[in-house]
Write a structure and sequence with these properties.
- Helix 2 (about 30-70) packs across helix 3 (about 75-95), helix 2 (about 30-70) packs across helix 5 (about 115-145) and helix 2 (about 30-70) runs antiparallel to helix 10 (about 230-260).
- The protein is globular, with a radius of gyration of 22 Å.
- It has one domain (about 10-340).
- The chain is mainly α and about 375 residues long.
- It has 13 helices and two strands; from the N terminus they run H-H-E-H-H-H-H-H-H-H-H-H-H-H-E.
Length: about 375
């Protein structure tokens, strides 16, 4: 049985299992009540949920696009948008979606532009670092903002979610944000150190040694870009901060337009923290089961002014648009694969050093222009 067949079987089983879990969750909440909540929500809330997702994808693409142009990759914004959509769509289907999306972006950009893989990986890695810094900053702030809701929003039986847990989470996020900034500023290479440690343990495996070498080039490129392009880095970070702001505001808009529920900043902070932590532990497509159970359990212990059927309807909106994004990702990936297989020159360019020794200096432009795709030659 080939690798592609096994992968298809795994994805099929995962989707089937997710459908069963989703059906069980809806049965627990109540099918009739959920359907009524969906009807009450109306078309406007449903469409606004999709609009927020589209804006979030666009903001992530802008963040990556700014960095790409700063390092000399002349990739059109539409190319960056397709790469991000493909990566995020793959992240919906794959376990650990937060991390799984990044290699997909690199592979897509490599297939559609022909730019050096190490440079693309370094740029995508830097964009991920900035996204993580933005995420940590928002978690630190929302962890504090959530405290009033946790202290006052207690269900009738007296159970509550410990405010101390969110206070500790806020502190850890702040420390992590500062630590990552220090790592980038001093050009530490934690991924390279990890890969080299594996190479020492697993001696005799050339693939691990090559992984360590390529990881070093990738991290050097990311570190050099961070230090040499302060303004683009700041602008990219700003786009990720706006992105996370949109993530927070999405349930506020949907519940207000759909069911006339006005959520406070404290309540939105709780929803953001719970959903993002559960997404980080995603093991099923779109987090089916973990996200549903976690958010419904939160409703049982924290007063969010939301009934379970309305929460289930909101999650159904998210699942629909996640599925749409995954479908778009599959379409983009399929088209990129066809172009890659049909290319006359499939040879990979040599991996250049990011400081210009033996390769191209940061900021020397590569173009990615073409008819019908993004393929182009280095200039």
């Amino acid at each position: 049985m080939g690798h592609s067949v096994r992968r298809t079987i795994r994805i099929t089983l995962a989707l089937t299992g997710s459908a069963v879990i989703l059906a069980a969750v809806l049965a627990l909440v109540g099918w009739r009540a959920t359907i009524e909540a969906v009807r009450a929500g109306g078309v406007t809330a449903f469409l606004v949920s999709g609009l927020f997702l589209a804006v979030q994808v666009f903001l992530q693409a802008v963040g990556l696009h700014i960095l790409s142009h700063a390092v000399g990759h002349r990739v059109p914004l539409w190319g960056s948008l397709r790469a991000v959509a493909t990566g995020l769509g793959a992240g919906v289907l794959l376990p650990g979606g937060y991390v799984a999306a990044e290699p997909v972006k690199v592979v897509y950009l490599r297939a559609t532009t022909g730019l050096p893989a190490a440079e693309l990986a370094g740029t995508v890695l830097l964009s991920k670092y900035l996204e993580v810094i933005s995420f940590a900053a928002v978690v630190a702030l929302t962890g504090i903002a959530a405290l009033p809701c946790l202290g006052l929003g207690v269900s009738g039986d007296g159970r509550h979610l410990s405010p101390a847990l969110f206070g500790v989470l806020s502190g850890l996020a702040g420390v992590g944000m500062i630590g990552l900034l220090v790592f980038l500023e001093r050009r530490h290479r934690p991924l390279t150190a990890t890969a080299r440690g594996l190479a020492r343990v697993l001696r005799g495996r050339p693939s691990i040694r090559r992984l360590a070498e390529n990881t070093a080039v990738m991290e050097d490129w990311a570190g050099a870009a961070f230090l040499r392009h302060r303004v683009p880095v700041f602008l990219s970070l700003a786009s990720f901060l706006v992105f996370h702001g949109m993530v927070i505001l999405r349930p506020a808009a949907v519940f207000a337009l759909g069911w006339g529920i006005g959520l406070t900043l404290s309540q939105l902070s709780v929803i953001f923290l719970v959903t993002q932590l559960l997404h980080a532990a995603q093991v099923t497509p779109s987090g089916v089961g973990t996200l549903d159970g976690g958010l419904l359990a939160t409703l049982a212990v924290v007063d969010l002014s939301i009934r379970a059927p309305q929460c289930a309807a909101f999650l159904l909106y998210l699942r629909f648009w996640d599925a749409a994004l995954a479908g778009i990702a599959c379409l983009f990936a399929l088209r990129a694969g066809v172009r890659l297989l049909g290319a006359r020159d499939a040879a990979a360019r040599p991996i250049p050093l990011p400081d210009g020794q033996g390769g191209r200096r940061l900021g020397t432009p590569y173009s990615a222009e073409g008819k019908g795709d993004l393929r182009g030659d280095a200039k």
